[in-house]
Amino acid sequence: MRLPPLLPGTLVKRYKRFLADIVLEDGSTVIVHCPNSGSMKGCAVPGSRVFISRSLNPGRKYPFTWELVESDGFWAGINTALPNRLVRDAIEDGTVVELHGYETIRPEVAYGEHSRIDLLLESPHRRCFVEVKNVTLVENGLALFPDAVTIRGQKHLNELMRVVREGDRGVIFFTVQRGDGESVSPADAIDPEYGRLLRLAMENGVEALAYRALVTPQEIVLTERLPVVV
Predict the structure, then answer these.
(1) How far is CA 41 from the centre of its chain?
(2) In a 10 Å sphere around its CB, with 0-12 CB exposed, 13-18 middle and 19+ buried, how is residue 14 labelled?
(3) Which sign, positive or negative, has the C-alpha torsion 222, 93, 65, 106?
(4) Is there a contact between 83 and 132 (Cβ–Cβ < 8 Å)?
(5) For 155, which DSSP code?
(6) String of DSSP letters for the chain
């Protein structure tokens, strides 16, 4: 997926969860939208190099959006609005062979209890529900999810188990948006309940897939499958 033209800068601080101050190359400071509800552990260190995009929509209160940050020498994609598109592109171009062969892909389809599945893959007589997660926390090559307690994520695992019980296919898909992740594991020290539910889900037929993305200031693209270690 090609990215729009990005502006380089330096992170001053992230605050109020969805805002950050960033210094541009000309020395000016701008307030940017931070499209990430997690803690961004390891990806919100003041002084980090960042890239931001600028919207031409005159109605936006904050025209700038934080897209990338350099963490441990690797670019990390922190925009959680992108992984669904990344996964869909990778399914359609054949990169994600595990999800190949369905006739249609629909995003944001209502299911479960007041939820929407990220991607619903369909063919006659078979369906696959795909829940996509963005992973940016990496420690010693181990990509960890989540980076904060996620009640919503726990709910998604329960709902995937339900669709499997009903005869459909359920997939939790971890998108590692940085180049130094070698495998994916639940972050038990951060959210032990999520780790418990992930293991339970996998024992009950939910498939766990993980792919690493090549992240550059020009594009982000899923490239290779990673093992999920629980």
Answers:
(1) 14
(2) buried
(3) negative
(4) yes
(5) H
(6) -BPPP-EEEEEEEEETTTEEEEEETTS-EEEEE----S--TTS--TT-EEEEEE---TT-SS-EEEEEEEETTEEEE--TTSHHHHHHHHHHTTS-GGGTT-SEEEEEEEETTTEEEEEEEEETTEEEEEEEEEE-EEETTEEEE-SS--HHHHHHHHHHHHHHHTT-EEEEEEEE-STT--EEEE-TTT-HHHHHHHHHHHHTT-EEEEEEEEE-SSBEEEEEEE-B--
The pairing of beta strand 207-215 with beta strand 104-111: unpaired
Cα separation, 76 vs 205, whole angstroms:
31
Strands 169-176 and 207-215: parallel
pTM of the model: 0.95
The partner residues of 169 in beta bridges, in order of sequence, read 128
Q: What is the pLDDT along the chain (230 residues), one digit of tens a residue?
A: 999 999 999 999 999 999 999 999 999 999 999 999 999 999 999 999 999 999 999 989 999 999 999 999 999 999 999 999 999 999 999 999 999 999 999 999 998 777 899 999 999 999 999 999 999 999 999 999 999 999 999 999 999 999 999 999 999 999 999 999 999 999 999 999 999 999 999 999 999 999 999 999 999 999 999 999 99
